[in-house]
Write a structure and sequence with these properties.
The N and C termini lie far apart (about 45 Å). The chain has a single domain, classed as Four Helix Bundle (Hemerythrin (Met), subunit A) (Up-down Bundle). It has four helices and no strands. The protein is elongated, with a radius of gyration of 18 Å. With about 110 residues, it is mainly α.
């Protein structure tokens, strides 16, 4: 085992601690609820006339936070044997990060 493996493992551990921290989880849940309200406002023509630009910009910013959070979550996962990152995932991997995302994906 070379020193870079220890550094990578330590970085993954720190990243996992950040992702799994109760404050981080609370922020993500809050953003999910705000995003749900924004999706509801996007279906209301009067709201889109008044604040359409703001609603769309806020929606994109929240989407960017979701993308960053899910990438951090996947980067914190331990890879099988540490040999081929990105090809084989350990059994710790699950679809839970994908399932708790907002209903709308970018299109």
């Amino acid at each position: 085992m070379n020193p870079s493996d220890n550094i990578a493992s330590a970085m993954r551990s720190r990243l996992r601690a950040l992702v799994e921290h109760p404050f981080s989880q609370g922020v993500i849940i809050t953003l999910i609820l705000i995003n749900a309200a924004l999706l509801g406002l996007e279906t209301w023509p009067a709201a889109m006339e008044v604040a359409g630009g703001f609603i769309s910009a806020l929606d994109r910013m929240i989407l960017a936070v979701f993308v960053i959070e899910i990438s951090h979550e996947y980067l914190s996962i331990d890879w099988i044997f540490g040999v081929i990152p990105g090809v084989f995932l350990t059994l710790q991997w699950s679809l839970s990060p994908c399932c708790r995302r907002p209903a709308r994906w970018p299109y």
